[in-house]
Amino acid sequence: MEAHNEKVIILDFGSQYAQLIARRVRENNVYCEIVSHKIAAQEIQKINPKGIILSGGPASVYVKNAPRCDERIATLGIPILGICYGMQLGCQMLGATVRPTPAREYGRTACTVNSESKLFKSLAKDDTVWMSHGDQVVELPAEFHSLALTRNCPFAAVMHKETIFYGVQFHPEVTHTPQGRLMIRNFLYEICGCTGDWKMYSYIEKSIDDIRKQVGNARVVCGLSGGVDSAVTAALIYKAIGNHLSCIFVDNGLLRDYEADEVITTFKDTFAADLHAIDARDRFSDKLRGVTDPEKKRKIIGHEFIEIFKEEAKKISQAKFLAQGTLYPDVIESIPAHGGPTVTIKSHHNVGGLPAELGFELVEPLRFLFKDEVRKMGEELGLPEELVWRHPFPGPGLAIRIIGEVTKLRLGILRNADRIVIEEIRKAGLYRSIAQCFAVLLPLSTVGVMGDERSYENVIAIRAVETTDFMTADWCRLPHEVLEIISNRIISEVKGVNRVVYDISTKPPSTIEWE
Ligand code: XMP
After folding, report:
1. Domain topology for 7-191
2. What is the value of pTM for the model shown?
3. Domain spans of the chain?
4. Which residues, 6 or more positions from 114, have their beta carbon under 8 angstroms from its beta carbon?
5. Which CATH class is domain 407-502?
6. 470 CB near ligand 1 (under 6 Å)
7. Which of 53, 67, 189, 512 is the residue whose CA sits 20 to 30 A from 304?
8. Does the beta carbon of 349 sit less than 6 angstroms from any atom of ligand 1?
9. 72 CA to centre of ligand 1 in angstroms
10. Nearest C-alpha to atom 3 of ligand 1 is from which residue?
11. Whether pLDDT at 345 is above 90
């Protein structure tokens, strides 16, 4: 069974935006995948895509060893859209000349487009686009039409008359090109003839089918962390194989308020799955006693989790498969040749990662999905809204938000403060627009007055950030009224806290977490 017939492929030349292009395509209900720029034309023919997009990239097409693609792609009769470097490469392959730009363009730029062309259908003639380039096409053979220009760029968009090749020097995939979404939609619908047959419900059906084929009658084990990825993985597999799924949930005592209860209720009551919930709170707190170094905390928690998971998995007879909530961005980033020259600056945090020696075969039903698509799937599978939209939470949990030693007393203080932060952010209707917000318990006491007495108590820091990739982040400009309520509530309701501060640092140089 096929969930979709239409597919677009994106040849990645090392663009920081390749994933963004993919998301924009999928937002138009067209399935797409990012592939290496080295893919052979024959291979593309086998995939039989409705369209090909050549991504941007940091290289210059005229230097030796610049990433190129199989030139025969221009003869397949499949529409191609080249973006920035992809445009320069496509144009060069079709006989144009590319040179360094006399005046490098960067940022928002006024652009005049030919709205008669299919690519710019329904667009205003004068538009703003996002430019970021040091090279550009300078001479075009007669087979090309110019479709747009900016002050410094005579060929901001072009079309080849014989091959179905379109090129744009700017970036339609970023939000700074306000009409960019429409341009991508035009490419897919007007030029490639897509109809938009990629729908979540049919993808769920297909995934269920694939899971059944892969695992047959065998038993699958899935670790639940309380986060959205593992919950959606489990819910999907449960739909596919029902009680042949066994879920393991390790309560390490480092989760936020109500989280453990919610996981247990969801998977025991709503899904009636075979749930092994292990109360390991004491085990973790024993191991963490006296530990203050953040990396040591991470190692201890990661190691302990694996030990407990192994012990429990051994008890599940005939378990053959292990389900993991790996997402598409991790898949792309783990293939070194994929993005060619892209440099990935992400450090690997995943404490919940399980070692291969467990001897399971992997089931990874989310490996072609982006986070927003996983959430959509979670909603369609009937998972609770709070779980589906939950902010990311680090594997070591509250342990790395208690600076210094983790004790039961300090965990209690932080959990209460954190609950208040989340409650008030939700009440203010801000939860979904914030990427992550939480409380941190600092390892110091400050002086205060409570009644007639001087107090000497803990400080809570509030962190709220906006980010899409978690590699860079900005602090949220939370309304003062919301901060005021949070601060008042924490100080009056959480025993042991007499001061609240707000973190106004960006990442970099700061990180999102404090440890
Ligand atoms: P930083 O603090 O590096 O965080 O800016 C970036 C993102 O990663 C999360 N994070 C972790 N996640 N184990 C995890 O599973 C960890 O040890 C860990 N440390 C940070 C952090 O919450 C943010 O989303």
Report:
1. Rossmann fold (3.40.50)
2. 0.86
3. 7-191, 200-388, 407-502
4. 120, 145, 146, 147, 148, 157
5. alpha beta
6. yes
7. 512
8. yes
9. 43
10. 511
11. no
